[in-house]
């Protein structure tokens, strides 16, 4: 789930943003509603929200001053026509927009920043583990991991075939059994790429001693859990 912090000097503005815009977007987990920079700073230090939605542009200076590596995506909703800053992951929205427009723009911003970064991290991890992206099963693993983080957040992996495989199957015009078979095939190819010595990377990541092969459920769940949004 994408962790969201909402900040405005007026509590009623926070409530309006949450009730009318954020509630329309799946995969968000609200971790705080604050009215002061000091409160926002405390939450950022302890929880590190992925997305901050605020009416206060000075939060950018706070982040630049107090954090070296932490750089959340930020949405500023304001009547000001321009925010003078070089902060990269920033979306400025006019307060004149209606809530539906704000919701759509935030959703697209999330896809372009947070999810895109997580997708890149997941691809790099799978490559390091020697998964082959020429195989459809590897693509299905990637889509499964993205689905877990973006849309569900937490649920029973016992329902993987019903929930995850069916979702991926719809994306690619196939069926759940084909998705599961392709993922198993991709894992077999990955396994065969390793020598006894190089298999240590699999042992360390999945906890499966040679010559055991990780199952589809283990691959998807551990890749999803070890890569943080």
Count of helical stretches: 9
Instruction: Please name the CATH topology of the largest domain.
Output: Rossmann fold
Number of domains: 2
Measured as a percent range, the helix fraction is 40-55%
Share of β-strand residues: 5-15%
Specify the CATH class of the largest domain: Alpha Beta
List the strand order in the largest sheet. 2-1-3-4-5
| Overall average residue pLDDT | 88
Number of strands: 5
Strands, helices and their partners?
Elements: E1 2-7, H1 11-20, E2 28-34, H2 37-46, E3 51-54, H3 59-66, E4 73-78, E5 90-94, H4 99-128, H5 136-152, H6 160-172, H7 176-193, H8 200-206, H9 216-226
What does this protein structure show overall?
This protein is an alpha/beta fold and 229 residues long. The relative contact order is 0.11. The chain has helices at 11-20, 37-46, 59-66, 99-128, 136-152, 160-172, 176-193, 200-206, 216-226, and strands spanning 2-7, 28-34, 51-54, 73-78, 90-94. The radius of gyration is 20 Å and the shape is elongated. Helix 5 (136-152) packs across helix 9. It has two domains: 2-116, Response regulator (Rossmann fold, 3-Layer(aba) Sandwich), CATH 3.40.50.2300; 129-226, Arc Repressor Mutant, subunit A (Orthogonal Bundle), CATH 1.10.10.10. The protein has nine helices and five strands.
């Amino acid at each position: 789930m994408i962790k969201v912090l909402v900040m405005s000097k007026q509590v009623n503005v926070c409530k309006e943003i949450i009730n009318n815009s954020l509630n329309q977007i799946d995969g968000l987990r609200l971790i705080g509603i604050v009215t002061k920079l000091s409160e926002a700073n405390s939450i950022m230090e302890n929880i590190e929200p992925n997305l901050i939605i605020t009416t206060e542009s000075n939060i950018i200076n706070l982040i630049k001053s107090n954090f070296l590596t932490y750089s959340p995506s930020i949405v500023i909703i304001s009547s000001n026509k321009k925010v003078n800053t070089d902060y990269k992951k920033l979306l400025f929205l006019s307060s004149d927009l209606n809530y539906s427009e704000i919701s759509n723009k935030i959703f697209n911003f999330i896809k372009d920043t947070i999810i895109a970064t997580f997708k890149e991290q997941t691809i790099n991890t799978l490559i390091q583990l020697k998964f082959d992206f020429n195989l459809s099963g590897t693509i299905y693993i990637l889509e499964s991991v993205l689905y877990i983080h973006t849309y569900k957040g937490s649920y029973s992996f016992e329902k993987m075939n019903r929930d995850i495989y069916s979702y991926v199957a719809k994306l690619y015009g196939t069926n759940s059994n084909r998705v599961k078979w392709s993922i198993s095939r991709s894992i077999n190819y990955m396994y065969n790429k390793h020598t006894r010595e190089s298999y240590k990377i699999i042992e360390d990541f999945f906890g499966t001693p040679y010559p055991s092969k990780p199952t589809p459920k283990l691959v998807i769940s551990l890749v999803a859990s070890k890569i943080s949004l």
